[in-house]
Design a protein that fits this description.
The structure holds two protein chains of two kinds. The longest helix of chain A is centred in the first third of the chain and has 32 residues. In chain A, strand 6, helix 22 and strand 7 form a beta-alpha-beta unit. In chain A, helix 3 packs across helix 4, helix 9 packs across helix 12 and helix 25 packs across helix 26. Helices cover 51% and strands 5% of the residues of chain A. By secondary structure, chain A is mainly alpha-helical. In chain B, the strands form two sheets. Chain B has a nine-stranded mixed beta sheet with strand order 9-8-7-10-6-1-4-5-11, with helices on both faces. In chain B, strands 2-3 form a two-stranded antiparallel sheet. In chain B, helix 2 links the parallel strand 4 and strand 5. In chain B, helix 3 crosses helix 4. The radius of gyration of chain B is 21 Å and the shape is globular. The N and C termini of chain B lie far apart (55 Å). Classes of the chains: A mainly alpha, B alpha/beta.
Chain lengths: 683, 263
């Protein structure tokens, strides 16, 4: 095709050929980028093992869903849509950029697939869309400044400048491309040459129209300036990526591909070490940056600073000193500082907690998983928190409020320091078999500590006994042989104590010869399901009740108080960590005449009650209790009865009602209690 | 600075239900779990912190039967450098003075700048530290709630006195201190540490190693002997509230209101 303008490859600028310029920019840009990336990878090579190349087909599906299709982005509607457009634009225009850059070296170069009418059409529309979205994003970041991007004073200045700079660079790329194309189009028009495809309404079309009055000589200059400016901005942007949060442009797709696949689990102390060898280790847990796994450092690099994690974090929202976003950003900056782009890496170790993070920050987490569930890039937090806690435990740096329950669990197998023999005191005449003393049965009811000992939670156990009995289940409990499931012991980093508890419980469970296990405590459920091995299958009571209601084994009468409006509060370890959202709702809705509403934050966006297990003993600095906040949310939804499916949620929310002075107005009841109250008694 | 801390294994009321046995001679010892005496734990923590600041060593010692091993290993896991287990059938039933005599013999076998005891242990007598200092002819301060090392021969201490007031003293070394809870925040002892300490060697010192005989120390020459254990008889005006937690709370609030405790 004949063109009116000299192409960049054929041009001579300042006495050097266009090809020479193009090659120089390409080589310098790529070398610098490769060097930066190599430097950034240094700490990953020194970090802990983390096998992430298993189950490739599953990983590819997740990459497609969360990476390419950006599944989680629209959870924040506007920002999500803007991001999807920019991301899709990047994917489409990457082909165009490569073509453009190489055409400066090989005149008229086209990549296969990038020369056709379809692609031209697509890239013209994309470039225009990206430009418009960048401008919209600039207005949003610069003028409207959404709250979740705010940076608390203790963490330095706002990150708006970096965001705006990058949006400017992207807009610059689009504008250069458009200008480069438009100058060619306009010159061709003027000289009567054949032109390519020009789509009305696109940036190139508009620019072409604006260029039409200009003489061809000016267009020639514009053409070349636009080309080389595009080249420069492209490589400037590329080399800028590894310097900050825009590294996610490079790392996010690998990060999604390498994501944690099994929810509800906690990483082992060391991936490449048998648990019997933990005791011989010099040190346990993440004390320094290099103690983290390489994937966890990649997480830091991948953080896009979007603030969604902290926006969802219940600890953050009640003013505890924890913000998942800043865990990533502070650790990323720490990694950058320890391993600078130029000069030597720091030799002496710097403790993460104390220097980069605060102790209270690490203990403030309830491991509810709201942050991980929101992160569009699948960054992990719970495993890191647990690894950091393991380090603190190893050094004895444990708040006094947590030492007592931990010691009681060590001595008595429960955090309250009660006698083992009293674990079955709640039975009080109910027909419950205590297994292990000649008694045997099919189903084990694993009660766990809070339900054994807490006055309020014991009512769940008593309701459980009646409901299981009504459902004609052949069940029993471990009684004095049961120990705390250790769910929180593990998540608070005391792995060796957890292993001891697991050992005792596993032995006791296997001794009974039961065929399945049921529990009313999602924490015990999660522990038995994910942290224990080689025991019979475990179910949460909501699943069992759902089945028994369906089969007609459990029959329910009309709702007792038809004036009540019920709402279901998703427990973190039933919902987010195990994906059980429907069973409890189906069970509640099976009560004829019951009115149920949803809270704004429900299902995978449920708001943690304040946490179970050891989290109940921790005394954080906070403005308000999470339980109180949750009660407010239920009121706003128009409910007056909150239904929980977890003893910890029950106790925390009841606390929230009392401390908010809402007794009489608001009420909380466990799912099992609710069903027990509505059982049709069969003779 | 070389510090010796005397520790004792006691039943922890936080993890036990303390009851009298049937014949009223002792508490019911079946199904008890034991811990290191709380005051002693603070003393070990303080010793470790001083060592970490000034150098030297921390040794823990207990006078107990073989069960005492557990608390020594816990304190080793906490950070003590050495442990000594003083163990002999002769010592069973020793009174406070006897214990002080045994500890004195042990202390004279080594070289220590400071000896710590807890303010008191399960018996609540708070006497061993003072007697030990007298027998060694060393200075003594009780109920120590703050400690600064001034130099190798001198320390400054705070003592808690009535009304929350503090007295400040300087003391020449060597000396004996009884340490009050709250002087620091003792570190957590991870199970891993305890397991690691399970393979460490703890020397056992018998009466003969310390040059002691039944006549000089031990249970048989105890001059203070426990005669009886009993729960005080409920006096006039005393009442134990019974019922569920809710009922007890309601009754308590009612009582406090009627007696003018709260409005």
């Amino acid at each position: 095709m004949q063109t009116a303008l000299i192409s960049p490859a054929e041009a001579t600028i300042l006495g050097i050929s266009g090809v020479g310029w193009s090659i120089s920019i390409l080589v310098i840009g790529l070398s610098l980028f490769a060097y930066f990336v190599a430097r950034r990878l240094t700490p990953l090579l020194k970090a802990g093992a983390d096998p992430r190349l298993d189950r490739i087909p599953e990983r590819l599906v997740r990459l497609l869903k969360y990476g390419i299709l950006q599944y989680r982005q629209p959870r924040y509607r506007l920002a999500g849509i803007l991001h999807i457009i920019i991301f899709a634009g990047f994917m489409i225009l990457s082909l165009r950029s490569v073509t453009l850059i190489l055409s400066g070296i090989v005149d008229g170069f086209t990549l296969p697939g990038s020369g056709g009418r379809f692609y031209t059409c697509l890239k013209e529309v994309s470039a225009t869309a990206v430009l418009v979205v960048c401008l919209a994003a600039m207005v949003r970041r610069g003028l409207f400044r959404p709250k979740r991007y705010a940076v608390p004073a203790k963490y330095g200045k706002a990150h708006t400048a970096e965001a705006l700079a990058v949006l400017t660079l992207i807009s610059g790329l689009m504008l250069c491309d458009m200008t480069f194309e438009a100058s060619q189009f306009s010159a061709n028009f003027q000289k009567g040459f054949q032109t390519g495809l020009l789509i009305p309404g696109t940036g190139t079309w508009l620019t072409t129209r604006a260029f039409n009055p200009l003489p061809v000589s000016s267009l020639q200059s514009i053409h070349l300036v636009a080309y080389f400016l595009h080249d420069l901005i492209f490589f400037l942007f590329l080399c800028f990526l590894p310097l900050g949060k825009h590294f996610h442009v490079v790392t996010s797709l690998p990060n999604v591909f390498l994501m944690k696949l099994d929810k509800g689990t906690v990483k082992p102390v060391k991936w490449d070490l048998d648990e019997s060898k933990i005791v011989d280790l010099q040190s346990v847990g993440a004390k320094n940056l290099e103690d983290l796994t390489w994937k966890h450092i990649l997480d830091f690099y991948s953080c896009a600073d979007c603030g969604r994690c902290s926006d969802q974090c219940p600890a953050n929202s009640v003013g505890r000193p924890l913000s998942p976003r800043f865990i990533s950003l502070k650790c990323r900056d720490h990694a950058f500082k320890r391993y600078p782009l130029f000069g030597r890496a720091a030799k002496e170790k710097t403790p993460l907690v104390g220097q980069v993070l605060e102790e209270d920050e690490i203990w403030s987490c309830t491991t509810c998983g709201a942050c991980e569930n929101e992160c569009p890039l699948m960054i992990e937090y719970v495993d890191k928190i647990v690894d950091l806690r393991r380090g603190l435990i190893d050094d004895g740096l444990v708040p006094q409020s947590l030492q007592k329950p931990l010691k009681s669990i060590e001595k008595r197998g429960n955090p309250y320091g009660k006698l083992e023999t009293k674990r079955a005191d709640w039975i009080q005449g109910l027909p419950v078999k205590v297994l292990g003393q000649g008694e045997n049965c099919k189903t084990l009811y694993f009660v766990d500590s809070i339900t054994c000992f807490d006055d309020r939670a014991q009512k769940i156990a008593r309701s459980m006994a009646r409901v299981l009995d009504a459902a004609k289940m052949d069940f029993g409990i471990l009684g004095a042989d049961e120990r705390d499931s250790g769910h929180e012991v593990k998540r608070f980093g005391e792995e060796m104590l957890f292993l001891a508890l697991k050992g005792k419980n596993t032995k006791a469970i296997l001794n009974t010869g039961v065929r399945n296990i049921v529990t009313s405590d999602p924490h015990a459920f999660n522990a038995l399901r994910h942290d224990y091995q080689g025991i019979p299958p475990v179910e949460h009571i909501s699943q069992l009740m759902e089945r028994k209601i369906k089969s007609g084994d459990i029959q329910l009468k009309n709702v007792e108080n038809s004036g009540n409006i019920y709402t279901y509060h998703d427990s973190c370890y039933l919902g987010r960590h195990n994906g059980i959202y429907e069973a409890p709702r189906t069970v509640i809705d099976a009560i004829p005449g019951l009115k149920r509403v949803e809270m704004a934050r429900c299902r995978d966006r449920s708001f943690c009650c304040g946490g179970g297990g050891l989290a109940m003993f921790y005394e954080p600095t906070e403005e308000k209790r999470m339980g109180q906040v949750r009660v407010d949310m239920a009121r706003q939804a128009g409910a007056n009865v909150i239904v929980t499916a977890c003893p910890f949620c029950l106790v925390q929310i009841e606390d929230g009602i009392k401390t908010s002075g809402l007794e009489g107005e608001m009420e909380v009841i466990d799912l099992v209690e609710l069903i027990n109250d509505h059982l049709v008694c069969r003779e | 600075m070389d510090i010796l801390v005397c520790v004792k294994r006691v039943p922890d009321p936080a993890e036990n239900e303390i009851r009298l046995n049937a014949d009223g001679t002792d508490i019911e010892r079946d199904n008890l779990v034991y811990s290191v005496n709380e005051w002693d734990n603070y003393a070990v923590e303080e010793a470790i912190r001083i060592r970490d600041r000034t150098g030297g060593s921390v040794t823990v010692v207990t006078v107990d039967n073989e069960e005492g091993d557990e608390v020594l290993r816990r304190e080793l896991a906490m950070g003590a450098d050495r442990a000594i287990h003083v163990q002999d059938k002769l010592f069973e039933g020793a009174d406070g003075e006897g214990l002080a005599r045994i500890l004195k013999a042990e202390i004279e076998k080594g070289r220590y700048d400071l000896v710590f005891t807890g303010v008191q242990a399960d018996a609540g007598s708070a006497q061993v530290g003072g007697m030990l200092a007298a027998m060694l002819d060393w200075p003594f301060a009780s109920i120590v709630s703050h400690l600064e090392v001034l130099d190798e021969q001198k320390i400054r201490i705070h003592r808690e006195v009535a009304g929350g007031n503090q007295e400040v003293y300087e003391m020449d070394l060597p000396g004996v201190l009884s340490i009050q809870t709250g002087i620091n925040e003792p570190r957590y002892v991870p199970i891993r540490g305890i397991l690691k300490a399970s393979s460490l060697d703890i020397p056992i010192h018998k009466a003969s190693d310390l040059g002691l005989t039944a006549d000089t120390a031990g249970g048989s020459r105890a001059r203070v002997k426990r005669q009886d254990y009993f729960l005080p008889v409920m006096g006039e005006g005393a009442e134990i509230l019974k019922g569920t937690a809710e009922e007890i709370i309601e009754r308590l609030i009612g009582l406090l209101k009627s007696k003018g405790g709260i409005r």
